[in-house]
């Protein structure tokens, strides 16, 4: 299956404003037609043949038509195009608020397009405002929220933005490959001289009143076209600036540029693309006797291969490699079940492992009415990320086991149609799923029913894989978030110790260079006196 390529920002802008650009092109053509005819036939020949008045009259007529088109163009207001990126799956509360703030800023630009660039330092005000919106969303009430990043993060962001800007410019304007900046500087140097000569030419044109009137009318058309379109063009530029800077700021303050040294080799010409560097860690959790072990055994079969994790598994938990065509490579982690009698304040092994996992398969019996223990456990799971509004919620799949024991319990004659089937068993399955989703605050598409009977394969294995596959994007984002989390105190202390020699060497070299320069200057002074 081939996917349609996503158009670039500039292509989308050209498509959005195609009508205004077409009218501008037509206006430019109307202005240039007299000059094209004049250069083609020769102005001197036109005068000699007595066609000068026809030429001037035609020029005035075309310019008048250009003015009419310009008036029509100025009345038709085109709202700036939005190129707003959607929030990633399972976005954190801070990211959602940041996007709301940026959306409100764009709406303010659309409501007052003429006032965007009137204030002094308008460009820096727009950029700083977008950064401030995102910073305050990630660090509310923080006086230094704008500076909550490190120097390596800032440098990596600038490198990333520069790389994307270069790719866009080279792809959209290939002429820039051959345009040297020296030509631009030379043009700027000649602009003053050319301006003086153009003033003399403008004065001499008044010798011929008809030519002067045509020239002034043409200049008026061009000036009005630029002034009339500048409001909407500047509003579009402002919207693009806010959206692009805001997107980079979200990635900056969310830790998207928090790369470790080993993730960015010294020989890498560009930053490595973001993506999961290891199989996703999937925790199988739930109450005791809910069917966790049976599910793990059915998924793994005889191919139980214990594996290690980048982050060591919690004591009492075991990790196993798993691979399926529908889900890809995963690491399944099995932990002891939820213990309702555990001491308050003591984190159970499954909960400690959940903080190190990317996806949770919450296993509970479909034929169980009391779900108070499940509700308490899932509330504790949510509490892991609710304390930090910049963290994503750990995605979960609700796995309802013992579907074969629903009424009528002695009937088991698959296949069953969970969507539209009308047999009693099928209706009971839908009711049990809907009740569990309501009690445990789980969307229906993230819940699945299964049955594991002795000597038989998992019933509705495809439904389980489908639920997992739909949450893989959220799980991948969670894995990236965990990988970019701030280092602990031990890592910070170790980095501080290893940084001391380099700082000392740099300081010693700077002091030596300063002293040597001072000594050389003093020696020159004494020599000059002698």
């Amino acid at each position: 299956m081939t996917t349609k390529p996503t158009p670039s920002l500039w292509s989308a802008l050209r498509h959005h404003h195609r009508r205004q650009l077409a009218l501008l092109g037509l206006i430019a053509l109307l202005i240039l037609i007299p000059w094209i005819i004049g250069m083609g036939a020769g102005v001197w020949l036109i005068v000699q043949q007595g066609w000068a008045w026809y030429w001037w009259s035609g020029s005035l007529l075309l310019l008048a038509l250009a003015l009419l088109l310009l008036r029509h163009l100025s009345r038709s207001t085109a709202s700036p195009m939005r190129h707003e990126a959607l929030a990633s799956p399972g976005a954190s509360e801070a990211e959602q608020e940041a996007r709301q703030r940026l959306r409100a800023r764009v709406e303010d630009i659309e409501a007052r397009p003429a006032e965007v660039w009137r204030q002094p330092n308008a460009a820096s005000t727009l950029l700083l405002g977008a950064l401030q919106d995102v910073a305050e969303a990630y660090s509310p009430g923080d006086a230094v929220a704008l500076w909550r990043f490190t120097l390596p993060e800032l440098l990596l962001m600038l490198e990333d933005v520069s790389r994307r800007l270069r790719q866009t410019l080279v792809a959209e304007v290939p002429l820039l490959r051959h345009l040297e900046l020296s030509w631009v500087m030379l043009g700027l140097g000649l602009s003053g001289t050319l301006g003086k000569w153009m003033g003399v030419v403008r004065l001499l044109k008044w010798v011929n009143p008809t030519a002067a009137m045509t020239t002034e009318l043409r200049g008026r058309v061009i000036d009005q076209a630029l002034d009339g379109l500048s409001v909407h063009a500047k509003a579009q530029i402002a919207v693009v600036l806010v959206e692009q800077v805001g997107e980079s700021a979200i990635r900056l303050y969310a830790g998207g540029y928090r790369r470790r040294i080993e993730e960015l080799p010294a020989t890498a010409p560009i930053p490595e693309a973001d993506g999961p560097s290891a199989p996703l860690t999937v925790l199988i959790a739930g109450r005791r006797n809910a069917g966790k072990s049976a599910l793990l055994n059915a998924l793994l079969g005889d191919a139980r291969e214990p594996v290690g994790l980048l982050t060591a598994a919690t004591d009492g938990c075991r990790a196993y490699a798993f691979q399926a065509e529908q889900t890809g490579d995963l690491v399944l982690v099995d932990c002891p079940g939820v213990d309702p009698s555990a001491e308050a304040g003591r984190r159970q092994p499954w909960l400690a492992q959940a903080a190190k996992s990317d996806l949770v398969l919450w296993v509970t019996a479909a034929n169980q009415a009391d779900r108070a223990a499940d509700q308490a456990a899932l509330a504790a799971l949510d509490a892991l990320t609710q304390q930090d509004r910049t963290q994503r919620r750990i995605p979960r799949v609700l796995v309802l086991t013992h579907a074969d024991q629903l009424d009528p319990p002695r009937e088991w004659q698959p296949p069953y149609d969970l969507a539209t089937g009308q047999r009693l068993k099928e209706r009971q399955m839908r009711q049990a799923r809907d009740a569990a989703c309501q009690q445990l605050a789980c969307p229906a598409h993230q819940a699945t029913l299964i049955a594991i009977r002795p000597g038989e394969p998992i019933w509705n294995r495809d439904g389980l894989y489908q639920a997992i596959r739909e949450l893989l994007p959220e799980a991948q984002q969670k894995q990236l978030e965990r990988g970019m989390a701030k280092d602990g105190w031990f890592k910070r202390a170790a980095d501080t110790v290893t940084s001391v020699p380099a700082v000392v060497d740099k300081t010693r070299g700077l002091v030596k260079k300063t002293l040597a320069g001072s000594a050389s200057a003093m020696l020159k002074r004494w020599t000059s006196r002698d």
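The longest strand covers residues 280-286. The CA atoms of residues 221 and 481 lie 55 Å apart.
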